[in-house]
Amino acid sequence: MQVISKIDALRQALWQHRLNGASIAFVPTMGNLHEGHLQLLDRAHEQADIVVASIFVNPLQFGPGEDFNGYPRTFENDQAKLTERGCHILFAPSVEEMYPETRISATIVKVPQLSGIHCGASRPGHFTGVATVVTKLFGIVQPDYAVFGLKDFQQFLVIKQLTEDLCLPVEIIGAPIARAESGLALSSRNGYLTAAELDQAATLYRCLADTRTSIDAGNLNFAELEAKAQSQLQAAGFTPDYFKVCCQQDLQPASTEDSELVIIAAAYMGKARLIDNLHFHRL
Ligand code: PAF
């Protein structure tokens, strides 16, 4: 695996592959890689000849008081995992390389309708930070395909929307959520949890699954189902941020007419803010 930290050097390396007619799939990450990230890499391998991953903890998507400084940086471990999983190129730029001081946040990419709700309401500016860095990374890597985990369903929609609106020639692929045996979605932030909290955290997935079961059984009183799940989360030691049954396409509250649904949730447990979702076609 080639490890490249400079934009020019990455472009040169990719130029050679493109000349050879190779297709390129890209997996952007913030590092601290777990099995969920590695499954994105597997998906990228299915799609293209050359797989490029990036590791960049993007300061623009962290708000004041969030965990930018404490975000786990495990570069050597990550490098070993990527090598083992057959990644061809790892792009790992510095903050200065991505945001030269004179140009920091000179241009931002904002996807207004999707960015102010749910996680965007609790983390103002977060999705603009994500949209801006992903657009920059797309400009640098110019991949044919880019693979994102569906755990962050809202982020996935934001990226699909910006790609469509800006006519970027990249196909966005969503990869299924990787889960522990307990059902807990794999996340770098699970590392903030104690062993006892990890056990309790699986309640988040159970609430999603129970809510889906109730909907499929014909209970379309979404407000009641949301309230029930929030109390179950509280009883398990979570401080819920939101738990909502939404329309998959735009994340607006679902109506009883909608059949493509997503139940999205975010909740605090100890030092971690966990997110998860279930998207499905209502029976
Ligand atoms: O999902 C993430 O890890 C990040 O938000 C991303 C897409 C790599 C942008 O920094």
Write a structural description.
The protein has helices at residues 7-19, 35-47, 75-84, 95-98, 112-115, 119-122, 126-141, 153-165, 195-201, 203-216, 222-235; strands spanning 2-4, 24-29, 50-55, 89-91, 145-149, 171-175, 239-247, 260-269, 272-281. With 283 residues, the protein is an alpha/beta fold. It folds into two domains: 2-175, Rossmann fold, CATH 3.40.50; 188-275, Pantoate--beta-alanine Ligase, Chain: A,domain 2, CATH 3.30.1300.10. A six-stranded parallel beta sheet has the order 1-4-3-2-5-6, with helices on both faces. Strands 7-8-9 form a three-stranded antiparallel beta sheet, with helices on one face. Helix 7 (126-141) packs across helix 8 (153-165). Pantoate is lined by residues 28-30, 58, 61, 130, 133-134, 152, 155.
- How many domains make up the coordinates? 2
- End-to-end Cα distance: 45 Å
Alpha-carbon Rg, integer: 19 Å
**Topology pattern, helix = H, strand = E:** EHEHEHEHHHHEHEHHHEEE
CATH architecture descriptor text of the largest domain: 3-Layer(aba) Sandwich
CATH topology of the largest domain, what is it called? Rossmann fold
Q: CATH superfamily assignment of the largest domain?
A: HUPs
Kindly state the percentage of residues in helix. 25-40%
Proportion of residues in β-strands: 15-25%
Oligomeric state of the chains present here: single chain
